[in-house]
Amino acid sequence: MLKPSDQEYQQTRHIKLGKATIDEKFNDFAEWIKKKYAVQVLNIYTDVINDDTLRLQLIFEHEADLNKFFLKDRLTSSKRVVKAIDKKYRELFQIMDSQPVLVLFYAFEPLAKEEANTSIPLKMIISFKEKYKDTVWEIARFGQHVTVFFYTKAQLNEAQRDKLTEKLKQAYFEILKENDELNYFTLTNLNMIFDSKENFDKNYDGNWRAYYG
What we know:
Layout: H1 7-16, H2 27-37, E1 41-49, E2 53-60, H3 79-93, E3 101-107, H4 108-118, H5 122-131, E4 136-142, E5 145-150, H6 153-161, H7 164-177, E6 192-196, H8 197-204, H9 208-212
Parallel strand pairs: 2-3, 5-6
Antiparallel strand pairs: 1-2, 4-5
């Protein structure tokens, strides 16, 4: 699983920012992918894992781009597509059939949004919580998603009636945009969920692993 801290992500980020370009040795391969699947690959990254397996990572920009490479469940890559890409990769780079190749597909945008969200300085989160301390117990960040916990279900219901939840989302969005260098977040696509400590304690025993599991 690709993470914002990984070298291949950082390399792709520089490409997206215009500070680097895709390795020119992959130009023909990238052009073939574009023509065959009608989607532009943002970066191609290869390395060797488990001593002899060539790992071929194709990084596209948006999640929608991945639909061309996955089955309808969006979790399983198409064996037919993987086979075609594997064949072309071996052909272009003269990889022997005996050499194992692992083909992986990723989207850059969700990772960039995760990086923007999770890199908001803790002092800003603390300040945000302090401002709404009478009703907000916790602000939990998980990847690109945010969960705002009120203390009780009653407070949550009241906040929704009074549109405090909308106010909180707008306030958090303004903080988030300071870190959103690639401008991927909008108020609409910011996934902010509202819950209560009461629910967290009662149904998940106050356990974060259970809550996000």
